[in-house]
Write a structure and sequence with these properties.
Elements: H1 6-13, H2 33-50, H3 52-55, H4 64-67, H5 74-80, H6 99-111, H7 118-147, H8 155-159, H9 162-167, H10 173-188, H11 192-203, H12 213-223, H13 226-250, H14 252-255, H15 257-264, H16 272-279, H17 289-313, H18 320-334, H19 343-353, H20 357-382, H21 390-416, E1 443-444, E2 452-453
Parallel strand pairs: 1-2
Helix pairs in contact: 2-7, 5-7, 6-7, 7-10, 10-11, 11-13, 12-13, 12-17, 12-18, 17-18, 18-19, 18-21, 20-21
Length: 454
Amino acid sequence: MGDVTPDADAVAAAPDERPADERTGNGRPAVPVLFLVIVTLAVSALGFVEKQPCRAGGWNEPNFQYRHACYTDIYPLYFVRGLAEGKLPYLDESLEYPVLIGAVMAGTASALSGISDPLLRGRAFYDLNAALLTLSAVVTVIAVGYLAVRRPRDALMMAVAPGLALAAYINWDLLAVALSVLGLLAWSRRRHGWAGLLLGLAVATKFYPLVFFGPLFLLCLRAGRLRAFAVTTAAAVGGWLAVNLPVMAVAPGSWAEFYSFNRERGADWGSLWYLFQLTGIPALGTSDVSRINLMGTGAFLVCCAAIAVLALAAPRRPRLAQLLFLTLAAFLVTNKVWSPQYVLWLLPLVVLARPRWPTFLAWQAAEVGYFVAIWFYLLHVSVPEEGIGPGTYLPALALRAAAVTAIAVLVVRDVLRPDRDAVRADDADDPGGGVLDHAPDVVALRRRTRAVCV
């Protein structure tokens, strides 16, 4: 670690002054791993049971998945993308997902080729992918426990989250969530190469972890840890290229489908832009895709500029999890797509950024409300005499966005008032920050001890 200063080394070598019940004899957090695993498996089992009406045959009946709120992308994509016929993603059939999801789809499909009945094979495809997603959930919860090193029981918030049960098996998002959190854990252990590799693979699974690099750069800039950032970024680029270049070389058009699909799609369910369209809000309620792209990107960049000022001007350097949450929340609120399973992206960051049960449960209630509303609204779109109309669906959409925004406001307050930050209440700095933890400021927008104003 050539970029660790003597001050940081001294901190790393200092005696562990945490309470005995928060650490083990070798200095690792006393995370109740077995208990976390059991709880996560129990909650995941509830999620699997919630999908059971569809799994029992309902996926093949029109609108059944909306009436019973048991929708998933996994089962239908097995047939729609030719996997049932032995086709390979990208090579034989275009796929609107990044390459690692395509690899998982191809691998699990090939493992089931011996099942003759296509419907049974499709269900087995769902089951096998659900098992992988359950493993991802367990890995994520354990990693969150180790990231919350001074407060490992905070991981229970994610383990028991209703959002985890309801959204785990809609799509393959938990694979990216697990890789992202493992990358953050590697960063916290100052394994910058591994951190970058895992984050690069996460971006190759779902694109959202790309936004993590902005906050990481800002905090490394303020702390004078740019070498660690450079190593992490280089490893991330290398990892991403390693899995993308082969597909880019043999099937460039199919590889680009993910990017063109997201560029060309309009305002989708769950987004504020969709709300603006349905309510006809002037200037914002447009169906012009290029205009939505421009406004959404512009709004996100404005949020990023505000986060950058906060990162460099806050009286005390924000914790990494706080800035990651703020950036991802800004991305979702300004994005033209906000699918129900995106709650999984936020779960670990909310737990790490603001581990307060009342806030967490209020947000989860809003997510559950939206989960119910979206399926019954889609039922109404398909069968107008059933389900719920926009008058009920749009308030649920707005409430979810308001809940995420409210958490962001509270996180900003914690950044500006570090004494109100639950993680820093016992004189901690940034337990998951790796080289950022207890590092002195080098660049800041305020003059502080040993800081240089810019």
